[in-house]
Structures are given as C-alpha cells and as structure tokens.
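Task card 7
Instruction: Convert sequence to structure tokens.
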Amino acid sequence: MTLRALERRIVACRLCPRLVAYRERVGREKVRRFRDWEYWARPVAGFGDPRARLWVIGLAPAAHGGNRTGRIFTGDRSGDWLYAALHRAGFANQPTSRSRDDGLALDGAFVSAVVRCAPPDNRPSVEERDHCLRYLAAEMLRLGRVRVFVTLGGFAFINVVRMLRTAGDVPLAAPRFGHGAEWALASGRTLLGCYHPSQQNTFTGRLTESMFSAVFARARELAGV
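Output:
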C-alpha cells in the first residue's frame, strides 16, 4: 500500500464513535470566525515528503485547525509556529500553512499526529489512541528514509516510543520526555523531545521561538540534510 492509499484509508476511518460525533458536530456548528468555511470534519492524514528524513509527530488535529482545513497543523497557532520553524530550518518552502491549497510543500520532512481526529478537550481515550497507532505504524513502514523523530509534547513522545518498541527499534537508554532531550535508537536513528507549540506553552514563555528553532536545527544536523 502506498502512502496515498494509506491516506485514503485514514480519511475514511470511523472506528471511534465519540471522535466521529465530535469532529462532525464541530464541523456543523463551527465558530463565528470560520462560519464561511466548509469544515473537513474527517480524520487527518500525514503530510509532507515521502522521502522524508525528519518525521514530526504531534497529539491530534485541532478542532478548528486540522479538523477545519484537512491538513495537520494547518489553520491554528500551533501550526503557525511549526511551519515557520520548519521553514527556518530549510524543510518548508514557506513559513505559513493556511489551507490545503496554499502552496506549502515540505522537503525532507513529514508531519503526522498520534490521533487522527480532533478529540474533545484534546483528550483521546486509550482505545481511541490505540485505534490510531496502527496508522502511525503504517506510515513508519512507508517512510523508510526517516532518521529523526521529533515528538511535540509528552503524549506524542510516549506513544512514539511505544510504536518504536513494537517495531523492535528500542531506545538504547530508558527514554524520558524533555524539551531537547535526545535518545539514540537501536537502528541508529534519533528520537528528539520537544515542547508542543500550544498557546499554553508559547503564551507563557515555556516555549520560545529560539528554543523551538534549536530543536529543528539539531534535527536537520542529525538527519544529514
């Protein structure tokens, strides 16, 4: 199965009744500032370069971000931070991500989330998470050139570690999430921890632009691009 075929399978998924109901309700009710949008309101597949050496993984699409636009980290403040950082590091052709047809292209990078539907309060259940991990694992099999994983937030970090262990690519030391934490994997690849560019982190100064940029500069060095 190609990445494109996997994307179609992800978009058609209806395994989690609570998430299906929530994403579709948000798409019907909208919010005032996006009342003229036709919401995507479906699962959101990964986005980027199939030959990526860097794979960035977050928690889930935002209710009025990816769930609205149909592209991960697109149309919300977290995405503004992420794609600007990828642009500064040379992985993106532009620093903004507004819609699926805005011309954004990634070079050497791929972006996904652990959970593919927007969850209420950003809190997927264990069952919902496990349903989606199959898609993350399927993407990994098709992203055979990846050398560096950047996990945005503790949830992504924990679940990427679970996925890697299941695949037999275990960290060489017990991994513990932290911003800028770096873990060697048995395959020779590297896992990097990074604070999520949520408003909770960026508005409070817990995550600064320079801190965020440093992670992607290091990722580029490790990826050898």
